[in-house]
Amino acid sequence: MSGRTRHLLDGELSIVGHMPQGPPLGVATVVPDFTFDRHGKHRRGSVFARALRDEGIAAYGFDAEGSGLAGASAEWSPKPWEAMTSQVCRARAAVAGQHPQDTRHVLIGIGIGGVTTVLSAVHTPPTAMVLIGSDLVQRVRFVVTGLAGVRGGEQLLPSRVFRDRERLAPRDRLAELNIPVLCVHGGRDPRFRLADNDLSDYGAQVISVSDVADPLQSHSSTALTARTVRKWMAEAGAIPSDS
Questions:
Q1: In tens digits, what is the pLDDT along the chain, a chain of 243 residues?
Q2: What phi and psi values does residue 186 have, to the nearest 5 degrees?
Q3: CATH superfamily of 3-235
Q4: Which pLDDT score is estimated for 148?
Q5: Using CA atoms, how far apart are residues 228 and 193, in angstroms rounded to an integer?
Q6: Radius of gyration of the CA atoms of the chain, in A
Q7: Are 19 and 61 in contact, with CB atoms under 8 Å apart?
């Protein structure tokens, strides 16, 4: 019977693993969207993790320090991207410790969590990487002070987070990776209609899933996205082949 296990790390990170029935086909660590907790916006992150579980993947989500769910204060670090990337690396190490040493691991980033997903992959490459609705925008052409509502799907971000993202150049870091990378986005997401938002230019395979703006918008599109990711993982050699 599928279940859920919870692992706590020194009061800063909490990790929840969604376990399939029987031995998992593979293992995935899901990096959350801006909320930086495992549920994500409208709880889409946790629903997606369960959809991966239903596809036979052991899917781990986590609540990071600053999310307000992990037992630590919900405050931004002076260097937010470095701090968040460090926590992604720690979560991945904890997940790896739950499985045999030769287990292949896939790193999956949702939304703006794709930035820390890429930075973590540069630090320690996984078997493969998936970006869900992440355009990894690098250049910010407006000034934000304090908190402000900005680009669709990014909610409210302190201005230094935008400035740091431009400095870290996540698309350029993506191009440096030598692992299979999949970018999944919704067919109606206006960001991906722009010519300069084609992540295939940076080495990713790009798939448009369903006729929605967000591939995790509904339970049906989330299930379709999970099936698409599982099929791609097999093609990329991250799990046993479907054939």
A1: 456 666 656 566 788 899 998 899 999 999 988 655 555 555 578 899 999 999 999 999 987 665 544 444 445 555 678 888 998 999 999 999 999 988 999 999 998 899 999 999 999 999 999 999 998 875 554 444 444 444 444 444 555 555 566 678 899 999 999 999 999 999 888 888 877 778 999 999 999 987 899 999 899 999 999 999 999 999 999 998 865
A2: -75, 145
A3: Alpha/Beta hydrolase fold, catalytic domain (3.40.50.1820)
A4: 45
A5: 21
A6: 17
A7: no
The CA distance from 203 to 205, in Å, is 7
Cα gap 19→47, rounded to integer Å? 13
d(C-alpha 30, C-alpha 105), whole Å: 11
User: The sheet that has 57-63: what strands, in order across it?
Assistant: 3-9, 13-19, 57-63, 26-31, 105-110, 128-132, 181-186, 205-209
Helix intervals (H) in 101-155: 113-123
Strand partners, 185: 208
Domain ranges of the chain: 3-235
Question: Tokens at residue 208, please?
Answer: 């448009």
The count of C-alpha atoms lying within 13 angstroms of the C-alpha of 114, restricted to the half-sphere facing its C-beta, is 27
For residue 158, which amino acid is it? P
Residue of 237, 166, 175, 234 whose CA lies nearest to 200:
175
- Please tell me what DSSP assigns to residue 199: G
Which helix (H) or strand (E) segment holds residue 86: the answer is helix 80-96
- Phi, psi for 30 (deg, rounded to 5): -100, 115
Between CA 153 and CA 109 the distance in angstroms is 14
